[in-house]
Design goal:
This protein has 381 residues and is α/β, with parallel strands linked by helices. The chain has two domains: 240 residues, no CATH class; 101 residues, abc type-2 transporter like domain (abc type-2 transporter like fold). It contains 14 helices and four strands.
Length: 381
Amino acid sequence: MRQALVRIGAIVRKEFRHLGRDPRMLLAVVMMPVIQLLLFAYAISFDVDHVPTIVIDFDKSPASQRYLRQYEASPFFDVVARGSSLADVDSAFDHDTARVAIVIPSGFSRSLAGNESAQVSVMVDGSELNAAKVSQAYSVALNQLYGQQLTRDWADGQGMDLSSFGLLEPRIRTWYNPERRSSDFLIPGLMAVIIAIVTVQQTAVTLVMARDLGTQEQMEVSPMRRIELMIGKLLPWTLIAFLDVALITVLGRTLFDVPLRGAAPAFALGAMLFVFASLGMGLLISALAPTLDTANMIALLVAFLPSFLLSGFAFALDQIPVWLQWISYGFPARYMVTIARGVFLKGAGFTELWPEMAALALYALVMLLISSLLYGRRSFR
């Protein structure tokens, strides 16, 4: 056992010396997750506010001006222009100077004064789907509030007391992310995406490179066992992956103020199992890929797209087709995203997250066993 540890340690030192000869490579491996985190966190946002809005008032009455002040006072809508014709709406949408248009037809105040239903046109630019949906919801809510205010004003004018009527007053509370910040939602999931990319790609590329350069064959004719060689090759990238996890966690907590409400040991164990699962995936790719370029392309394809699209990171898994939901079980990022968000946002611990941890442990064990067998068979060819 002691001799095996000595041989593994020698391989680990050799790998770190190899990385030390190219500081740019080591810097890229360590800093790339940090750069990716900053780019993703700042570039991806589901927060929608200050939507540029153009208003057109054909009625030009005190009532219409009072209605438009509701939009001007809202932090969601940002009135950037006042048009005089419907052609101004087309121009604003075509030049992306406005996303929402409010058009008040003539006769607006007359309808209100006659206790009739006054109509208002709200046009939304659907080329930005998320902004369009949120804008429509905010506009509907704003009009409902304005309609309620008109009802109260009418009742006061009639001498009626609406407080005697039963009213429905919903109390809405958002759990785990009360401010609904995109960073709190995205960054825990980004950890899984970024670590998967770095770990899978670097593992696959490193082992294929050793095979192409002939250093693997030289090691295999030595007294070193194949399992010792694999552990020695993978251990440096395992340590680097753990360092990346720590860096991303610290950045998320300090720079983006992401809360950590759950058990840190549970997150650490989940991250460790996820790293092992990703290493197994990278090892499997290296055993199957014939060339370095092929390994690089497959690793990026397998690590990035499933981690981004099939993990629940950006899209809720219950909103995608059922067959894709079943496919998502074959990628470890699905489990890690649940663990990260559970620990950071929901205050979860081992009791709540043990199914995901057990799945990651099983996934890592199966992947490492299969890839080791395939890697061994390839070495005998």
